[in-house]
Amino acid sequence: MRSKGGLDVSVHIIRNDELGIVTGMFNQMVSRLKENQATLEQLATTDSLTELANRKQIMADLAINIDQYRRYRLEFSILMIDIDYFKTVNDNYGHLIGDASQLAKLEDFALLPMYTKNKNCYVEIFKHLFFILINIVSGFTI
Fold it and tell me: Residue 37's CB: how many other CB atoms inside 10 A?
């Protein structure tokens, strides 16, 4: 049952009395905490509109890639795409239309289906800017 602050614990139920009931309740509580932690992690690291990595996640991934380059010379690439006049769309037509146009641009660039399925590539959006981090692995090309 030893866990250093994590939720990787489970107590074996060996009794059929009050202590066994409490043990079962403890195991259920740990299971619910794990599920809630996973949900919170998802909410904290993804954009709610596009469900792509958010700035917090992409910066963490970028730091990891820089560290791996320094240690092992594992190469990576960064691709940035800027949508011109995006602020004008939001100002003139509202944020709902701006959000829809942003999603349409994602599809135009074929980024959503192409890059989000590849575990070695991360896409993030800063309002009108698409930031793509690509880990270079054997055989992977754009």
Answer: 12
